[in-house]
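Re: beginner question about structure tokens

> Can someone show what the tokenized structure looks like for a real chain? I only ever see the sequence side.

Sure, here's an example I had lying around. Input first:
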Amino acid sequence: MLASGGSALGWAVLQAMPQSGSPAFATFFAALAAGLYAEIAARVRRRPATLYMIASIIPLVPGGGMYYTMLSSLEGSTYRSVELGLSTIMTAFAIAAGLAISNVLARMVFSSTIYSILKKRKIFQKPDKL
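And the corresponding structure tokens:
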């Protein structure tokens, strides 16, 4: 149930972004939001973030773009198939980039937060320079 929240969040961000520009741009921010949600849910439930990320990106996967690329290719419309293919590839790369950046951001935030808590409790201190 918790994993479906990331899907809903990603889809809501995708629908909220103006589609006048590139669909890959909107998909990037949707994947970023879904990835951050997955990282937080993974920390809360103490499970791997991949479990939540996979469920979160399913609505973002450009399945229709892949279908229409192949259809136009089989119909002989080379220009249209290349156009749709490039758009689909850009959308797929946007999903990958959004998830990668969300992973990096989560690691930066959580590692600094955990470090500050441990430092306040004097459990862990940086070694002195020699």
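Each token stands for a local structural state, so reading them left to right follows the chain. Residues 2-120 form one domain.
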